Amino acid sequence: MTYEKELEVALLAVQRASILTKTVYSSHSKGTLSKSDSSPVTIGDFGAQALIIASIKHAFPEDEVVGEEDADDLRKNEDERKLVWDLVQAAKLDDSSAEDKIGGPIKSVDDMLTALDSGRSNGGRQGRIWALDPIDGTKGFLRGGQYAVCLALMVDGVPTVGVIGCPNLPIDDQAPLDSSIGADADDKEGKGVLFGAVKGEGATSRPLSKGALQQSKKISMKAVPDVRQATFCESVEAGHSSHGDNAAIASKLGITKSSVRMDSQAKYASIARGAGDIYLRLPVSKSYEEKIWDHAAGVVLVQEAGGEVTDAWGKPLDFGIGRTLKENKGVVAAPKDVFPQVIEVVKEVLGVKQ
Ligand SMILES: Nc1ncnc2c1ncn2[C@@H]1O[C@H](COP(=O)(O)O)[C@@H](OP(=O)(O)O)[C@H]1O
Ligand SMILES: [Mg+2]
Ligand SMILES: [Mg+2]
Ligand SMILES: [Mg+2]
């Protein structure tokens, strides 16, 4: 198998970071700050990014990382820094040989800040670059909905290894996907999934719980003989994806079931395991550039599970031009068989708006 070590390190790194995010998820105070674009960030986002970058730098010191967060806020805010440091020290894998593979605990506050700040790569088309979203769906994380810890390795601009931890998704790949999945989620018994995929090698899922890395099962998208029966997923946040355009597309396809709304790349994971079928993310604003860390891991997962992903105009997503997908607008993901049918309707709906 290719990229075996990369996949193992990414799975362990995401598993460890998820221990931290789960602690924050279940606590009342999440240390929420507002970023310059007025989006939220929490002690969970900072802690998870520091742990994951430390893991990558231990195993692959030469690799670059494009991470969503940085250490600016923590360098300025001593109380927040202390909260994150306590969390980072407490998050450990049970298995000490697994901990060793990702470098063991971070040794000092300075090392934590350095790790957190090592996600500033500008991306690009050459070499090995990891795309990291320590908490994707931060708004869902705060609301008590779905969120995901997402990590992908891009090789020469192509997403090649993808790992997604979803602490609030059901372990059962076949569990029906209904509207309750995105709201009032909790990470109690029967929840928590770790997805992994390597380009050309397929996709898998396993329980996220400690020590369960061996229980990996192959996943694949569901066949959709009749697109009218399809289940489609979209963001909870209407500001991230146009609910109106998504609904118009579904209706033109003859889909009568209402959409399943959930935050984060749990949408990519849910269609990859065949719980849902189609993911629509139609742009709301003309100027917004999708971030590579919001998609890289999900794209590998869906492609390896038998799906196709492009932007809303049917253009391949270009991960090699920087921190954003600036040459693309929106995202559409569906099983290969129905993809042409779906993208035609998406183009029709977008075309009318031009
Ligand atoms: N105007 C916009 N359009 C599309 N995506 C946006 C957006 N503003 C923020 N986002 C992104 O939407 C992501 C969440 O997606 P979703 O709605 O599918 O849960 C956020 O990730 P973070 O939560 O990691 O910041 C953020 O990067
Ligand atoms: Mg995100
Ligand atoms: Mg994030
Ligand atoms: Mg964010």
TrEMBL record:
Its cofactor is Mg(2+). Keywords: Hydrolase, Magnesium, Metal-binding. Signal peptide: none annotated. It catalyses: 3'-phosphoadenylyl sulfate + H2O = adenosine 5'-phosphosulfate + phosphate; adenosine 3',5'-bisphosphate + H2O = AMP + phosphate; adenosine 2',5'-bisphosphate + H2O = AMP + phosphate. It comes from the Eukaryota. Converts adenosine 3'-phosphate 5'-phosphosulfate (PAPS) to adenosine 5'-phosphosulfate (APS) and 3'(2')-phosphoadenosine 5'-phosphate (PAP) to AMP. Mg(2+) binds at E68, D133, I135, D136, D294. One of its GO terms (biological process) is inositol phosphate metabolic process. GO terms for molecular function: 3'(2'),5'-bisphosphate nucleotidase activity; metal ion binding. This is 3'(2'),5'-bisphosphate nucleotidase. Its EC number is 3.1.3.7. InterPro entries: DPNP, Inositol_monoP_metal-BS, Inositol_monoP_superfamily, Inositol_monophosphatase-like, Inositol_monophosphatase_CS. Belongs to the inositol monophosphatase superfamily.
